[in-house]
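Technical annex, item 7. During the second reporting period the consortium partners agreed on a shared format for inverse folding records so that results from different sites could be compared directly. Each record opens with the tokenized structure and is followed by the designed sequence. A conforming record, contributed by the partner at site C, is shown below for reference.
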């Protein structure tokens, strides 16, 4: 679709260049020549308008069909003890539950989305030995990703948190389908909790380090030749989340308090 739109734009540019290169009509030309010139200009204007309308139509169709291609799953990811299961319980039943380390995903429907089709909330285990294959299993059907961060302990766990977030954002289907990503800075009720802006800055700096280490690993595996697989951000530029293809939003909340999750529930409505 994008290639077709680029091709149509190229045709338009070529046509405009030809119009600019056409010699001006002699002021003493016959009335018939003037009429032909006017008719030609009208045809050119019609062609240009038609191409622009076609481009806009293709863009609208591409956006709508792209949205329909997304599944109905919302993946809830995060390191161990970040509060994923507590968040899931609040969203589904508006109450907290006793949590434990899970070895498989937990799936619950979410219907509180103003009459839209239900979403499936998928709680991905946080243990680093099992989370990778499970999140990749569900990634292709993801409509959105909620990445939960423990705001109280992020300084101590920033490397593990960043490695997991980096892995999620560089999954091929996540990069191609571009589901929305919500980073929930959880446990804001605790005294040492960092704000969403501070956490965003910490993650951006750490992702820069992860990019360097991952690139070095790839170069070593390829005999010194760099390969462009699973990259985040722009080459030669300090990483920022604005350079990610997915729309990434940071919010604050407390998974054990439903009232503090208004931004999370509104986000779910927006992507549904």
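Designed sequence (site C submission):
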């Amino acid at each position: 679709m994008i290639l077709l739109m680029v091709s149509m734009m190229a045709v338009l540019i070529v046509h405009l260049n030809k119009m600019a290169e056409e010699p001006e009509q002699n002021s003493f030309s016959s009335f018939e020549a003037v009429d032909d010139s006017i008719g030609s200009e009208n045809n050119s204007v019609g062609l240009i308008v038609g191409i622009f309308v076609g481009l806009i139509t293709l863009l609208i169709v591409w956006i709508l069909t792209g949205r329909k291609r997304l599944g109905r799953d919302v993946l809830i990811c995060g390191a161990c003890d970040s509060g994923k299961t507590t968040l899931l319980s609040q969203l589904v039943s508006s109450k907290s539950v006793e949590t434990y380390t899970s070895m498989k995903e937990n799936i619950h429907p979410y219907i509180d989305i103003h009459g839209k089709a239900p979403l499936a909330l998928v709680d991905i285990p946080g243990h680093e030995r099992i989370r990778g294959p499970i999140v990749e299993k569900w990634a292709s059907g993801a409509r959105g990703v909620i990445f939960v961060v423990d705001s109280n302990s992020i300084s101590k766990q920033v490397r593990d948190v960043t490695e997991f977030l980096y892995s999620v954002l560089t999954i091929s289907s996540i990069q191609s389908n571009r589901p929305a990503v919500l980073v929930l800075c959880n446990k804001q009720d605790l005294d040492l909790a960092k704000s969403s802006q501070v956490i965003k800055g910490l993650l951006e700096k750490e992702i820069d380090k992860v990019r360097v280490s991952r690139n070095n690993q790839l170069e070593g595996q390829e005999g010194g030749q760099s390969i462009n697989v699973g990259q985040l951000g722009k080459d030669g530029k300090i990483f920022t989340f604005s350079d990610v293809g997915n729309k990434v939003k940071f919010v604050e909340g407390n998974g054990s308090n439903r009232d503090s999750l208004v931004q999370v529930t509104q986000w779910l409505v927006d992507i549904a």
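Residues 71-271 form a domain with the Rossmann fold fold (CATH 3.40.50.300). Residues 2-6, 23-31, 60-68, 224-229 have pLDDT under 50 and may be disordered. All partners now use this format for quarterly exchanges.
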